[in-house]
What we know:
CATH class: Mainly Beta
CATH architecture: 5 Propeller
Number of helices: 2
Shape: globular
CATH topology: Tachylectin-2, Chain A
Structural class: mainly beta
Low-confidence stretches: none
Largest sheet: 9 strands, mixed
Amino acid sequence: MPAPRTFKLEFQPALDDAKGRKELRDGLSTVLQIGRTLWVANDESASVERLTVAEGRAAEHVQFPLREVLDLPTEGRKDDTPEIDIEGMDRADGYLWVVGSHSLKRCKVHAGDPVARSVKRLGRLEAQANRFLLARIPMQERDGLPVLVRKDKPRRAQRLRGDAQGNDLTRLLRKDKHLAPFIGLPGKENGFDVEGLAVVGERLFLGLRGPVLRGWAMVLELRPVDDGRWLKLDPVDGRKGPRVRKHFLQLQGLGVRDLCLQGEDLLLLAGPTMGLDGPVRVLRWRGAARCEDSCVLEAEALEHVLDIPFGRGCDHAEGLALFRPDGEGDPSLLVVYDSPAPRRQVGASSLKADVFELPA
Length: 360
């Protein structure tokens, strides 16, 4: 497989900040190309970022705080919106779909803290309402570029009903025999953790980083529909079937880190379930869009597309997207990384992503 080429993303220095915790470029979790724009998000922010592709780079950074176009479940000051932990985006029928991780998180231990405080923090779990987000936001075209808006009659921004205890999806899964035991576990400890979203007609596919069951990863299939102010989950088959359809994929211990639709196939970014260095690969689930029932796919049923390099303590691939820098021709695969290596960081606020050629 030829080595990837790099593609430069340039952020506005004044906006290259995720609420003071880290730079936007240090934690990209998802990427999506819409026309001549790239959309990315950081997993510690509450916004999505638009860059314009031109002259071999993506620049002209514009930020869209989601509180301005969406009724988020959190209260609080408008200048201090808690993180959403955005882990997936896709576009369909004039909407931008976004999904949060839906996961709990365990408090971190800080270097130099007394032992008693560290032990106490390790026993504390946090549930943040914004992380339980599944929403769609109308898009308009202004000056030839897509923007997010709260309303575009008759369309309007909507989300699943939820709060700090969960949303309609997690409440439904608390009764599920496979997933119920993992809803109360932190995401990076094999708990329930959404990473990746792909829209197929009226259906959504959600990739799960965790749980992984004896090596089997999971992809959920949903059908959110308009229910006035909110979205609600209707039966996936549009009739009287289940409101969540589960697919099991033998990824040999890896979880799903992102999803991308190509024709009727799903491309899956598979990687470690925990925050570890480890194998990362892109796999193809052929005909996923034609699926009409739950699937159980052995490893041999998934086509190996390519391996993604990873670093030691850095370069953890988090997002992938079909990419046509000139807007024409066969697509390549654009990959963005969490904890990017220093060599990827250019100047004060730019970043180098990787572009891989897809095998014919």
